[in-house]
Design a protein that fits this description.
disordered N terminus; binds 3-methyl-2-oxobutanoic acid; alpha/beta; 11 helices; TIM Barrel; 281 residues; 2 domains
């Protein structure tokens, strides 16, 4: 699905060329096993800074560090073959100056093998996006509800309603003109997401945006029902894995307490014996 005929990994230009075509399938991943699961089905795999909340129990993404992104980026890289890997630049690692952004983005790419980075913000980061892209660092933009600005927004609110729509449109234009190869539109009104998708030249990737975007992204733990701290309306749950995991853990706990686990199948005798699959155990 995501790999080309020669089975090479997708590149930022491949993603940019998908504007107006078959929707781009994007998910987050933070670990090797999940990267292996999503790779075959996704065009883009994002090592999102949502990792701070989803895997590390942080209250927001603001405490996520470059070291965390590099560690999780390396893990995801080991699980991917065909999808494009993008790593989020964490809060504080790119806002100070284009030079700071370049230094840290280059480190992320060198350490993780990612083909691109993502930065949050519109007009305010356009100069930085221009600086990075001119120096060989492909950038994905992210506008609308940018979680790193949660304090400035006063919560995880829909952005771009009413008169504020024009500002979000300007952000989208600025990010595209600065050279981003795609832009995430998060939690903005559906009609605005549709309009931006029609007006900008790069693919839009929606999350709480519109089915008419050029692609969609979700946090994989959210859509699998593994992360329950937030249940935003834009997350469709495709499974309830936390419920199955909880039931399995409860069964294990009962079996340990009543000594029905381990059974004879799970322990070893003095002599090797053949178990299912033909292996000597
Ligand atoms: O950090 C993240 O997971 C993201 C996506 C939700 C777009 O930025």
């Amino acid at each position: 699905m995501s790999a080309t005929a020669e089975s090479r990994a997708l590149t930022p230009p491949d993603i940019a060329a998908r504007k107006g075509k078959t929707p781009l399938v994007c998910l987050t991943a933070y670990t090797t096993p999940i990267a292996k699961l999503v790779d075959e089905h996704c065009d883009v795999v994002l090592v999102g800074d949502s990792v701070g909340m989803v895997l590390h129990g942080m209250p927001s993404t603001l405490g996520v560090t470059l070291e965390m992104m590099i560690l999780h980026g390396k893990a995801v890289r080991r699980g991917l073959q065909s999808a494009l890997m993008v790593v989020d630049m964490p809060f504080g690692s790119y806002e100070e100056s284009p030079e700071q952004a370049f230094r840290n983005a280059a480190l992320v790419m060198a350490e993780t093998g990612a083909a691109a980075v993502k930065v949050e913000g519109g007009e305010s980061v356009a100069e930085t996006i221009r600086f990075l892209t001119a120096r060989g660092i492909p950038v994905m933009g992210h506008i609308g509800l940018t979680p790193q600005a949660v304090n400035a927004f006063g919560g995880y609110r829909v952005q771009g309603r009413g008169e504020r729509a024009e500002r979000i449109l300007r952000d989208a234009m600025a990010v595209a003109e600065a050279g981003a190869f795609a832009v995430v539109l998060e939690k903005i009104p559906e009609a605005l997401a549709r309009r931006i998708t029609q007006e900008v030249a790069i693919p839009t990737i929606g999350i709480g945006a519109s089915a008419s975007c050029d692609g969609q992204i979700l946090v994989v733990d959210d859509m699998l029902g593994l992360f329950g701290a937030f249940r935003p309306r834009f997350v469709k749950r495709y499974a309830e894995l936390a419920e199955s995991a909880e039931a399995a853990i409860a069964t294990y706990a009962n079996e340990v307490r009543e000594r029905s686990f381990p059974a004879l199948d799970h322990v070893f005798g003095d002599e090797p014996r053949t178990v299912s699959g033909g292996q000597a155990a």
